[in-house]
Structure formats: structure tokens, C-alpha cells
Amino acid sequence: MENERKLTIARAMAEATAQEMRDDPSVFVMGEDIAELGGVFGNTRGLLEEFGKERVRDTPISETGFIGAAVGAAQDGMKPVVELMFVDFFGVCFDAIYNLMAKNTYFSGGNVNVPMVLMTSTGGGYSDAGQHSQCLYGSFAHLPGMKVVSPSNAYDAKGLMTAAIRDPNPVIYMYHKGLQGMGWLGTEAGAITHVPEESYEVEIGKAAIAREGRDVTIVSIAQGVHHGLKAADALAQQGISAEVVDLRSLVPLDRETVRASVAKTGRLIVVDEDYHSYGVSGEIIATVTESNMADLKAPPRRIAYPDVPIPFARVMEQHCLPNADKIAAAARDLCGAPVPA
Amino acid sequence: MQPAKGTLAWMYEKMVTSRRFENAIEKIYMEGKSPVFNMADGPIPGEMHLSDGQEPVAVGVCAHLEAGDVVTATHRPHHQAIAKGVDLKKMAAEIFGKATGLSGGRGGHMHIFDAEVNFACSGIIAQGMGPAAGAALSRQIQGKPGVAVSFIGEGAANQGAFHEALNLAAVWKLPMVVVVEDNAWGISVSKEASTAIKRNSDRAAAYGIPGHYIPGNDPRKIYEVAGEAIARARRGEGPTLIEVETYRLAGHFMGDAEGYRPDGEKDGLFAKDPIPVMRARLLAGGSFTDAELDALETGAQAAVDEAIRFARGSADPKPEDALTAVFA
Which of A222, B196, B213, B258 has most Cβ atoms within 10 angstroms of its Cβ? Predict the structure, then answer.
């Protein structure tokens, strides 16, 4: 593997999009600052140079207008890949997303497809405060009619993007800012992985076992997977074997992989950078407790963002965010190991 | 550009079809809903928004459109759908919530989709504007022919989607036409009380595009102005905003007591009912005889009767089909 090419998530996303644009003239990209700038988080770099302004379009900052337009273009036979910079901004255009994009297939009885990809960044940890740091995974996964994916590494990022563009349905592609490989956001080394040059798909709706283990299952997505992996490293030194499940996709949700892992380990921790209540963490725990109660040796735990807006001050934000220490402490507790002072 | 005789006949027939269709809906809607009005009862449950009086707008515009052109409609969509050529039987069945409906009963009256003629709808004010701009963008990028027309109400012109989509269409010179049906009322709030300017068409100036106001609910004037706008869009010269004075003869929704209307306003409106007005003008113009117009009306009624029969006679969807068609 040493000699194999490694990419950041941002570059992997751009590469997948470029390959699909080469193969399929109906694919085009539009959004805020995606052309000249190549995307604030780098995931459309190089597209303007190769495909030109007709197919790589900077939009006005009018999300209701251009996301609605993506729906119309998708219904008319195009495959728009649309970027709305920050997931926090979706409030201004939510109708276009959950009433149009997500429901027009249903309202047409399956006669009208809306094959579009809506990319957006998630996550905090860099003191950007409450309107630029949310994850909101649960909000999109909760509303029917859209698939929701979020990669934790560059290999998945490319394969999920290819699959999303080829999918006949709307796909929300949420990428965590802390994993993009942008130096100014800090770089998560584990997200920079080997990425084949050729085109490939990562199936939407299939979770991955990021690390195998026996004693406790840590389920997460995107940045949370890396926290889980670091916690697993620490736990291993104390004799606790943690299995880390990377969901990769929230809709569809691979409940079977989660259930099978908990059946093996008997313990469950869900790590979710989205708000604690009514979210992904509750859904995963319900998935297990609805069918696997007998497998559980201890009550499930969640390490999630508390139900408060995201603060600016570093010490306050870091206090609230999930991290490897919190996960490891919960795992030790669940496994009955002594908690170090 | 004045409509030829055949076009006038088509326009009159579609207006009558729409009116007769809604008359039938209106009657059936009340079945099972009396003596106590309960929206959930009867063969047609849910809200019902009739377009009586607004037919001239739909026919004046859609007379210039083909199946390949795109229309996004309002939550009051029947006249627009009929003028665009949406299948009347399947639409009726949809309104009855039947398995044979356009979406098998998943959408109902406010969500009419007919992919055969590129017709789509939203129950949310102004939210057809973005998708129309997108359909126009799709044609522009692909170099495919066709225009997108978005019908909205005058209340929708105060929505963000209206302004955002108009700006987008103007800056990208998209083949799009926006038609505002000004019936003077947004549910119970008058245009005067909700809109800072008298004519929404003046807002076109803000986007550097042509704007036209058409008074009088006159299908021939609408035909003329819309024809120019649609031709302009087809030539690649960008969007046009048209506002048409029209009249809502019914309430906002069925069951609306319309207590907000000034006394006597409706009497005046009925005197301006565009269907008898058009009939009288066609006869006065000398190109049509009573017998010809009677025949058009008879044909329209027959189509409506057949659609209603089809809808009533169709089976309900299987309840568990509610769980399908979420994804393609």
C-alpha cells in the first residue's frame, strides 16, 4: 500500500464527479463558489477548468432558487450535483429539499425521478459557532424521500459520490469539514486513504466494519468514526477489544451490520456529532433494542452533542463535542473495567 | 398576434372543460359532507381549491405550448393542467384518490404530476418557480428546445422563491415565462393589504426583464402577450414576467365562507364570468355560430362525464401501496 496513491476526501469527491461528467453529459455542477474557487472545502477543484462554465456554474447566494432549479433540471433529464456550502444554511431553502426534491417521486407515483446530488459540509470543532458548525444528520435522515450519505475516508468518498451521481434518487452527500484534508481546518490523517484511479461505486446503504473487535461495538459516521478508532486503540492497550462500525449511509440504514456486531459484542456505544435528542443515536439504539435486547450485556450509551447551540469559545465547544476519551471512558464503564483516575 | 379560429375554439373548449370539470368536482365534493361539513368525508376528501374564473389565463398561455414544454402549476391547478393537456381521466381519478390516478392516489388535487406532458405542481406558494427555472436551465444546457412556464398567484410574488428564481432566470437568460394569476386575494388577505406595489409585473424591472400587466381577464389579450413572451424565450432572449388580472369566483377552498369579501364584490365578479363573456364575443365576432359553440360545450361535458365516471368506477389503491414509490 505504501506506493499506492492517497487522496484527501475533497480530491476524491472532485475526481469522482469529473469522471462521471466525462461519461455522462447530463451531469453538471452548480452551487456557491464551486467554479473559480473550486468549492470552499475543495471538493469541486479542477472541474471548471476541464468542463467550463456551462457545466460548472457559480450560483447567486439564493438557495431556494438554485436548489429548486436543481429539482427542475433533474426532473427534466439532467443529473445536477449541487453544493450548498454549509448544512446550517438549509433552513432558508428547506421547502425545495423536503417538499420538492424528496417528495416529487412519490407524488408522481414513481413517474418523475429526481436524480440529483446535494452536497453540503457538516461539523464543527474549529470555533465557527452555532450557524456554521452543525451536523444535522438526523434532520435529513428523518424526512422521507432522500438518501443520506457521509464518508469517513477518501476511498468511500469517491465511491459514494460515484454511486450518488448514478442513483436515480436524490442523495444528500454530507461531508465533514474536519475530514476534507484542508490544512486550515486541521487534517485528520485517517481520512486520507488509498483511492484507485479507476471509477468504482461504494454501495449506498452498506455499512463497513472499520475495525473488528469482541467486547464493545462503537457505531458512528464521518468524523465520529475516527474518534471511535482512536478510542479503540486506547482500549486495546487496556485489554478491551472494540469493534467500530462506519455507517457510511444513514438512508438507507444498514441495520443488519449494526445488529450483527452487537450480537457479537453485547455492548453498544453510538457516537454522533449531531444533537443528542431525536437523532441518529436514538435510531441506532432503537434498531438494536427493538430486536436484540437479549444480546445486550449492558445498557447502550450515546456520545452525542448536547442539546445546546454550538458555542464559539474553544473550551466550551470542545467540552460538548464527542471525542476518543469520552468514548473510551464509556466503553470501560460498560465493560466493567476500572476507570483510570 | 391574434388567435386563429381553431385556436379560439380550442381555448373556449378548454375553458368550458375546466369549468364543467370543477362544477362536477364541486358537487361531488359535498357528498357525505353534510349536514356537518367534514373535510375528511365523502368521495373527494381533503382541501379543494377551485379555479372558476381563472380559466382564461391557462388557455391564453398554454395555447402556445406543446407537450415537450414544461409547466409548473399552483395549488389551484385544474385549469392549468387541463390547458396543458394533462390526462383528464387520470387527473380525475387522482382527485378521487384512486389507483388509476396520475400517482395512484399519493398526491391528490394539489400534487398533479403528468410526465407525459411535463406538468408538475406544488402545494406550496411560489415553489414551482425554482423547478421551472431548472427545467429551463436543462433545456439551455442540453440545447434542447422548449420553454418552462411557471404559474403562480399574486400572493406568491411576495415569496423569496419568486425573487430568487426570477433573478436566476434573468442572469442566465433562461427560456422561462412566469405568469402571475392576480385574483386579488391570497386566501382572505387582499393584494392591496399584502403587496407594496399595484402590479407585480413592475417587479420585472428589478431583474432587467420585460414585465407586462394584462387587465380584464381577456383570453385573447393573454394569448397575444404570452405568445410574444414564449417566442422570446424560445429565441434564447430570456425570461418574461406577466401578471394577469383574473377573478376567483369561488372561495379560496371549498367551505370558505368568504366573509372577508366586501359586500357585493362577488355579484360584480359573476357579471364578468369569462366563459359567457367569451361566448358572446365569439358570436359577436361572426366567426362562430351558436351551434358550433354548443357542440364544443357538449364535447367538453362529455369528456368531463367520462372522466368522472372513470374516477368513480376505479378501485381504491391497495393501502400498503402507500409504502411504495418513495424512491425510484
Answer: A222
